[in-house]
Design a protein that fits this description.
It contains 4 helices and 4 strands. The chain is mainly alpha-helical and about 180 residues long. The protein has a domain at about 60-175. The chain has a two-stranded antiparallel ribbon. Helix 1 packs antiparallel against helix 4 (about 140-175). The chain starts with a strand and ends in a 7-residue tail after the last helix. The protein binds zinc ion. The site of zinc ion (ZN) has 8 residues, from loops. The site of zinc ion has 8 residues, from loops.
Length: about 180
């Protein structure tokens, strides 16, 4: 059914082919409208739907290039996050921790029983004067903390990279032109 734009109000309305060449009232403004002959009516309709299709494909092209930009941006953010995360992981893995709390306890357990009583008393007095809480952690503990901080940053970087890469994949799939567009 061809569509005809009302010369009075501009709103298009559908016209039956049998109405071509006759008069009708616009369903929107009620004006009496002279309808063109069938050939002219079809030509008008074809032009209107063609310009509509062009407008639709133009807006689709716009959103396509927009999603491509978003895809590339996500890809780069994911790559940077993966590089930073990888750097942190490698730094963490490269650190060798020279001891553990378990080793330290074993060391103390073998060391203290060998001390003479007088030395034990002095050690206790030192603990009393310095307080039982150590202001500074043991060096192996500090190194272990530094190692786990690097590994934590590395894991966070990799997690961020994975999330953004997933986002890029979603944008890539959604933004991909379908066969009908090509
Ligand atoms: Zn009208």
């Amino acid at each position: 059914m061809p569509a005809f734009p009302c010369p009075s109000c501009g709103t298009s309305f559908n016209v039956a082919a049998s109405q071509a060449g006759s008069q009708t009232n616009c369903p929107h403004c009620g004006q009496t409208v002279n309808l063109p002959k069938l050939g002219e009516l079809r030509r008008l309709d074809a032009t209107a739907s063609e310009s509509g299709a062009v407008a639709a494909s133009l807006s689709q092209a716009g959103s396509l290039s927009g999603s491509r930009v978003a895809f590339v941006a996500c890809f780069f953010v994911a790559a940077i996050a993966a590089i930073l995360g990888g750097f942190c992981l490698i730094r963490g893995w490269a650190i060798t921790v020279p001891g553990s709390t378990a080793d330290h306890i074993v060391e103390i357990e073998t060391y203290y029983p060998e001390l003479p009583a007088a030395q034990l008393v002095r050690e206790w007095q030192q603990i009393e004067s310095f307080s039982e809480e150590l202001a500074m952690p043991y060096p192996y503990r500090q190194i272990a903390d530094e190692r786990s901080a690097w590994l934590r940053k590395g894991m966070l970087g990799m997690l961020a990279a994975a999330i953004v890469a997933g986002l890029a994949a979603v944008i890539g799939v959604v933004g991909r032109p379908t066969r009908a567009d090509a």
